[in-house]
Amino acid sequence: MNTIALVVFVIVQILFIPMALLGVVLICYKQIYISKQLGVPSTAIEVIKGRWLMHIFGLRKDQASVKLISVLPNSSILGLWLVFLPSYLRYRISGSTYGYPAIPPPEQEGLSHLVTARTVYIDSLIDKHRYSVEQFVCMGAGFDTRCYNMFQASEVACFELDMLKIQQLKIESLNKAGIDISSVTFVPVDFSEFGWYEELEDAGYDPNKKTLFLWEGVTLYLDEPSVRQTLKMMKQFSAKGSVLICDIYAERFVKGEYAFGMKLPQFILGTNKGKNSFGLHLTADAKLTLSDFMASEGAVVQDTFLMGAKTEKGTFMTVFDALLE
Ligand SMILES: C[S@@+](CC[C@H](N)C(=O)[O-])C[C@H]1O[C@@H](n2cnc3c(N)ncnc32)[C@H](O)[C@@H]1O
After folding, report:
1. pLDDT in tens, 18-35
2. Which side of the chain, N or C, has fewer Cβ within a 10 Å radius?
3. Function of this protein (predicted)?
């Protein structure tokens, strides 16, 4: 079956080259140009695109992402199908995925696994904590859908925090997609302006309740003072036993020095803040560096995933949970 799948893939891929190129143009136009027109970051599309692919290729169920991406004006489902149809046919015939999208064994991740591996690690950490908290705060939520699947039927109060424009676009699109948002409170914030906590409390957040904060794919867009200040606020204004799930990137990664050719996509996606972006030196003992940093803000790291640790280039990011005690 694998050989038949490979033959079908090669033939369709060759015939499809012009279509795939058209697909790339459509995806880039929507993700970069339309996002710019709308005044929203194009990187949030990168994540939901990864989640859509994971769903389509059977790696992780996420019906809400499938519905949401299909109505977002800055994404192109047609473009995605034009690019991925040959791989999809191969997957349907053989039952396996090859190359991309994929989830390699822990610590053997490369840059192409950033969204897929990060997503499953974070899902596992959310699963660990979701039954013992009363509030879930998705910090810099982008187009994340965990409030609409993992927390949908739960008693946990859900809050989504993000910049105003992307949040408005998300609410509009969730409504268009027919996704029930009645259990989610949206709070527009900017983590680099230190008043975000007041906005959250005004929206109904209770600092006396045990809370799970998710801060995924955001620290690299902030400078160190904003990251530290946000950590301080989460710790100060949450009940004992509250937890943060987060990812922090290697300095080499945020500076575009981790791999050859990283600087151009970072420039195109607008993530090239260079020396102002927050990252840690994860080259020596990454676990220790991470726990020392978190301890300096009074948080105790629990489980850690060191993505890329067993590859030639080494760790490019960490995913972890930390007790805010
Ligand atoms: C790469 S996206 C990740 C989105 C989401 N957490 C996910 O994993 O799907 C980064 C998100 O961080 C948000 N963000 C970046 N800087 C921010 C800031 N200063 N204040 C609030 N949100 C911010 C962006 O608007 C965007 O939605």
Report:
1. 999 999 999 999 999 999
2. N
3. Exhibits S-adenosyl-L-methionine-dependent methyltransferase activity.
> In this predicted model, what pLDDT tens digit does every residue of 99-131 receive, in sequence order?
899 999 999 999 999 999 999 999 999 999 999
Flag whether 101 is in a domain. no
Give residue 101 CA to ligand 1 midpoint distance, Å.
23
CA atoms of 94 and 240, how far apart (whole Å): 49
Q: How confident is the model at residue 245 (pLDDT cuts 50, 70, 90)?
A: very high
State if residue 237 touches ligand 1 by the CB under 6 angstroms criterion: no
Question: How far, in Å, is the centroid of ligand 1 from the Cα of 259?
Answer: 23
Specify the pairing of strand 300-307 against strand 317-323: antiparallel
Q: Identify the CA nearest to 108 among candidates 316, 321, 280.
A: 316
Instruction: Please report the pLDDT score of residue 188 as a whole number.
Output: 97
Tokens of 172: 């509009």
Residue nearest to atom 20 of ligand 1 (CA): 190
Q: How far is the CA of 317 from the centre of ligand 1 (A)?
A: 17
